[in-house]
Amino acid sequence: MTRTALDAVRRGVPPGVAELLDALLAEAERRDVAVHLVGGPVRDFLLGRALRDLDLIVEPRDGQSVDADGLARGVALADAEVVSHDRFGTVRIARGGAAIDVATVRRERYVQPGALPTVEPGSLDDDLRRRDFTVNALAIPLTTAARRGRPAVIDPEDGRGDLAAGVLRVFHPQSFHDDPTRALRAARLAVRLGFRLSRGSRSALRDAVAAGAFGGVSGERYRREIEKLFSDARLGLDPAAALRLLAEWHVLGALEPGLSLPPKARPALRRLGRAIAAPPIEDLRGEPWMAGLALWLADVDATSRRRTLRRLALRGDPAQRLTDFPKRRDRMLRQLARARGRGAVDAVLADASDEELLALLACAEPASRRRILRWANEDRRRRPPVTGNDLVAAGLSGPAVGAALSRIRLGWLDGTVRTRDEAIVLAREVAMRVARRSRSAARKPKQKRATRRASAALPETPASPILPPTPPPNRTLLPERQ
Ligand code: CTP
User: Fold this and answer.
1) Residue of the nearest CA to atom 29 in ligand 1?
2) Which residues face 108 on adjacent strands?
3) What pLDDT, on the 0 to 100 scale, is given for residue 417?
4) CATH of 1-157, one of 3.30.460.10, 3.10.20.90, 3.40.50.300, 3.20.20.70
5) Distance 41 CA to ligand 1 centre (A)
6) For atom 20 of ligand 1, which residue has the closest CA?
7) Whole-number Å distance between alpha carbons of 393 and 331
8) What's the sign of the alpha-carbon dihedral 209, 215, 219, 224?
9) In a mutational test of the pocket of ligand 1, which residue from 43, 47, 55 has the highest number of ligand atoms less than 8 Å from its CB?
10) What are phi and psi of 230, to 5 degrees?
11) Residue 100 pLDDT exceeds 60
12) Does 181 sit in the ligand 1 pocket, CB within 6 Å?
């Protein structure tokens, strides 16, 4: 690689990554080891796109015993940590939040379709040809030993031609058969780069679908690809477009019979993609893919949804949250549309996870969307002037504490409870009501009729100096303040 190209790569990555790269290349030069930049970063560099990660590869010459691990461990950089990455001997050098991945050239054989490949030592050419698409099978030699007798870009199958033509092309007709997850990678890359799958590759994919190759892949591997599909929205990928390609290629049905992309889910997925790229909520935690799967599967029939979750090896709490989402979505959207006042919006959204908020934002009407955003960015973190302990100190106990706290929060967000004293007065009223209700509930079984007569005779709750009587859930008596 020419000095200027290496400088361009260095400029394209965060300073911490550039420092790691310099340290690794210095060690490689010292030991006269060939190191190349490979795969996605070369593709993105040649396309003039931003680089995110650097993938490097070590190519030991005959008689050299060095590998990625050995080279990485020789790096003289204080605080650098070397972590063995996967069962293929890839290592990651990390330091202060920056990292680069380094592997040793290898050959792969697929003994069984869909299973992980058998890995053996190999040449640089083997390593490039084992990859999914020609545009990913490119290398740029970085060190003196790597450059010896080599062109500036190593390109065994005209990957640069395909880059220029905007085409994703597999190396051989068995490629999708060997590794069906490449179909999901193809959809992701096609949408992210604006590329199309070559005609020959489409036909290879059709054959793999027809041969049932997709059945041999573990749910975890598919799920990881789906996770990437949604997190790639950060790079401008529209998840709806990628899923649409997969539907068009009959890959969704091959993943799980009956699985589709309902047209109704598409606009919401598109909006979700934009929200992932530019989060409209501060400090949003949660997994984008959970929000994506929730929206996608909400409009799929319940049986296919259940089977898809099982196929993706989703169990326990995440599976339950995704199963419950359609009903929760419908309920929350209905209540949001009716909510009057900020306190009422708070009562609807209080137990929503960040993922649910993202998903709700993507499928709500504009007015409800504005309410969700205002709640998430402003009201969610507002704390009323009293805590549970304050209420206990004021003489409340048992269920009255929780009921009073909810009521105070509602009034606090609506602006009808403004001070600590007002909150305590309200808390005492709520406590009286709770006590009266539990007394009348205790009497009910034996003296149903007598109680009814007695309660008719009871004086009305004294009028609150602050608030009208407790409204039913999600309704306050004050108009919403926009
Ligand atoms: N690869 C493959 N088959 C797979 C997964 C990965 O051939 N099922 C190859 C690809 O050619 C890729 C390389 O392994 O270039 C590294 O994988 P990954 O880091 O996932 O790919 P990138 O292309 O770097 O993807 P991204 O740009 O999303 O980081």
Assistant:
1) 40
2) 119
3) 95
4) 3.30.460.10
5) 10
6) 40
7) 37
8) negative
9) 55
10) -80, -35
11) yes
12) yes
Q: Where are the domains of the chain?
A: 1-157, 383-438
Q: Check: CB of residue 136 under 8 Å from CB of residue 39.
A: yes
Res 109: pLDDT: 86
Closest ligand 1 atom, CA of 228? 28
The DSSP letter of residue 56 is: E
Alpha-carbon distance of 251 to 248, in angstroms, equals 8
* Ligand 1 atom closest to residue 133's alpha carbon, by position in its atom list: 11
Question: Per-residue pLDDT tens for 381-431?
Answer: 999 999 999 999 999 999 999 999 999 999 999 999 999 999 999 999 999
Across the range 296-301, mean pLDDT stands at 95
**Cα 331 from chain centroid?**
24
238 lines ligand 1 (CB under 6 A): no
Whether residue 476 has its Cβ less than 6 Å from ligand 1: no
By DSSP bridging, strand 118-121 and strand 106-109 are antiparallel
List Cβ neighbours of 304 (8 Å cut-off, separation of 6 or more).
256, 258, 259, 260
CA dist., res. 170 & res. 185, Å (int): 12
Write out pLDDT tens, residues 242-259.
Answer: 999 999 999 999 999 999
Angle, helix 265-277 to helix 288-298, in steps of 10 degrees: 170
What pTM was computed for the model?
0.85
Q: Which residue has the tokens 């000095």?
A: 3
Give CA–CA dist 249/253, Å, rounded.
Answer: 9
